[in-house]
Write a structure and sequence with these properties.
The chain is α+β, with helices and mostly antiparallel strands and 292 residues long. It folds into three domains: 1-53; 132-184, no CATH class; 192-290, VSR Endonuclease (Endonuclease, Chain A, 3-Layer(aba) Sandwich), CATH 3.40.960.10. Helix content is 48%, strand content 20%. The longest helix is centred in the C-terminal third of the chain and has 16 residues, at 246-261. The chain is elongated. The relative contact order is 0.07.
């Protein structure tokens, strides 16, 4: 009987997504109590428990929080992980919710404007625009670049959304850094190297260029990192991560050939060429401009 009841409780936990509350146990409350005392189940939040082997995972803690406080809004890296930036998923769950401090959680009393909240699989979190802005003090413009890259034809709109998310949440620690990055993103970079390239061109007083230029060749669409349309001069800034993927590597070379054959001069720079020697980058661009 005891083994059968433990099996029923394990099934109930599985049905609940991996967590269980005391009020969910019903007639199995005694079994729940025994499994807690034996260490088979571990407290995640007051009144909420999970199997010991999964209790410390970010996913389990998020599910426990949602069950414990349905009005909680995931923020920061926790929101980023839920939104698809899996590389950023942390061990500590960060959320805007009025709860007492708990191990493994970071709660704040920040008010999140409802316009900037989205719901994914029943879990509330800040949307991509606010999340990207929130994490600027920690990650710089990394997520801002990702958001802008997701909207190649609506870059101005995406940047305006980022600014609006910033403006709707004033007087927060780190807002000076957020304002600086957003200002530095006015030419809508898709990477930190592009942001530095834009800055170098602006500081050198070079004009006539635009970013993420849409070029159509024989019915195909290409986006150039940076272009001087009147000179038919293109600048491509290649990150190592992009070229480390075989398929992207092949497509990039095909794209470069098509643009060259269309009469453009394509200058290619690596991330290091721009970030380590911005003056050299500018000199090369000026030399190319002089030859067009």
């Amino acid at each position: 009987m005891e083994r059968a009841n433990r099996g029923r409780l394990h099934q109930l936990i599985e049905d609940n997504g991996g967590v269980i509350g005391r009020r969910d146990a019903g007639e199995l409350a005694g079994v729940l109590h025994h499994m807690i005392r034996s260490g088979d189940l571990v407290r995640v939040l007051p009144g909420w428990f999970a199997p010991a082997e999964t209790a410390t995972s970010h996913r389990t803690k998020v599910l426990a929080l949602v069950r414990h406080a349905p009005d909680a809004v995931l923020t920061g890296r926790s929101a980023a992980g839920l939104l698809g930036w899996s590389r950023l998923e942390p061990t500590i769950v960060s959320a805007a919710v009025r709860l007492r401090p708990q191990p493994g959680f970071l709660f704040t009393n920040d008010r999140i404007d409802p316009e900037w909240i989205t719901t994914i699989d029943g879990i509330r979190c800040t949307n991509k625009f606010l999340t990207a802005v929130d994490l600027i003090p920690e990650l710089g413009g990394e997520l801002v670049d990702d958001v802008l890259r997701e909207h190649p034809r609506r870059g101005a709109w995406a940047l305006a959304q980022l600014w609006q998310a910033f403006g709707d949440h004033p007087n927060r620690p780190g807002n000076n850094a957020r304002r600086e990055i957003l200002t530095d993103s006015r030419d809508r970079p898709w990477s930190e190297a592009e942001r530095m390239a834009h800055r170098a061109l602006r500081e050198a007083g070079i004009t006539g260029w635009c970013t993420n230029f849409e070029l159509r060749i024989d019915g195909r669409t290409f986006f150039l990192d940076l272009a001087f349309p009147e000179l038919r001069l293109a600048i491509e800034i290649n990150g190592f991560e992009w070229h480390s993927r075989r398929e992207a590597f092949e497509k990039d070379h095909q794209r470069r050939n098509e643009v060259n054959l269309d009469g453009w001069l394509v200058l290619e720079f690596t991330w290091r060429m721009v970030t380590d020697d911005p003056a050299g980058f500018v000199r090369t661009v000026l030399r190319a401009m002089g030859q067009r």
